[in-house]
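Q: Can I see a sequence and its folded structure?
A: Here is a first one.
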Amino acid sequence: MRTGWRLRRPRGPAEVTSAAVVALAVLMMAARTVTVTAGALADAWPALLTLAALGGVAALWRVRRAIAGRRRDGARLAALRITLAEFDAMDDRRFEHALRDLLVRDGWTARRVGGGGDQAADVIGDHAVRGRIVVQAKHTRVGGKVGSSVMYAVKGTAGPAHRADHAVVVTNGSLTRDAMAWGDRHTVHWVDRQKLRRWAEDGIALHELLRLPARSRSSRFKRTA
């Protein structure tokens, strides 16, 4: 059994007249509502316009502040110089951050990725012309040496794991003769204490210091999808 209400058409002149009166009343109320709303908007538009203008000014201020901040950061990095003594005083994490900042100074889009499971990459940088670089950072005590095993690890992961065009081992100490020779033979670049001074203190860009070539279709490190 249906329990809902159903509308039926008016019957007879009296019901038609009543329905017409109700419809007219509804239309008059709707018209009045529209008129009142339009009047309220007309009265309020200066305030609304002021709020919109203030919102626009605030948004513009935020954009200009962000741009100014990026310019300050860019100027700071462009003038970045780090001494060997400052490197020696760092811990591993700060050393990695410093190398990232130096790459950014040189025009790379770089990020620190060092940590557990980094697959022999502490910093990764990308360059519009030279492609991708993987940096393995080895912070040592003064006089410490980096051996060939680091070179093997970087060579093994630079292409397959990180899709890199260049791999570099950077230390504030030195490398063994075998490590340097193996790196030279297998295109794993290295930066020892003397090269680090030229890069960080003298301001020579890393890709110029190491003579990194432009990215080619056939990378020196075979990539996997």
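Q: Show me another, different protein.
A: A second, unrelated one:
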Amino acid sequence: MGVGKSTVGRMLADRLGLAYRDTDDDIVAEQDRTVAEIFVDEGESVFRGIEKDAVRRALAEHDGVLALGGGAILDEDTRALLAGPRVVYLSMNVEEAVKRTGLNAARPLLAVNPRKQWRELMEARRHLYEEVATAVVATDGRTPEEVTQAVLDALELKEA
């Protein structure tokens, strides 16, 4: 959350001359409501099912830069699908997360005691991100331009 997936993803797609897609945007368009609304109205398990389908479709249909929601890797089938394509895990520490997002209640998984919840989420997820990642790029203290260049370098990609 707040790591810059969308911003860096768009910049990366632009620099590579590829299309950009975000599965959270797909979900919002399909469901005609925000991710937070789905969480509140239906609960996390329903959202994760919707997300799993969205990721599966996007991976099958899209041939460019794809941004996934931070919890997409919780699903074992999704992790298996991510074994083929190049996957970049954009990492950051809690202090950077506070600066970028304020860890506010608009993020449903951080509604109560956001610092503690963010740390717990990262402890539960970090090994899964690393499991599927082709490359890990730290975003702490970096501009989106610097992160985008670091991704290009890590994947040994040349601009279009």
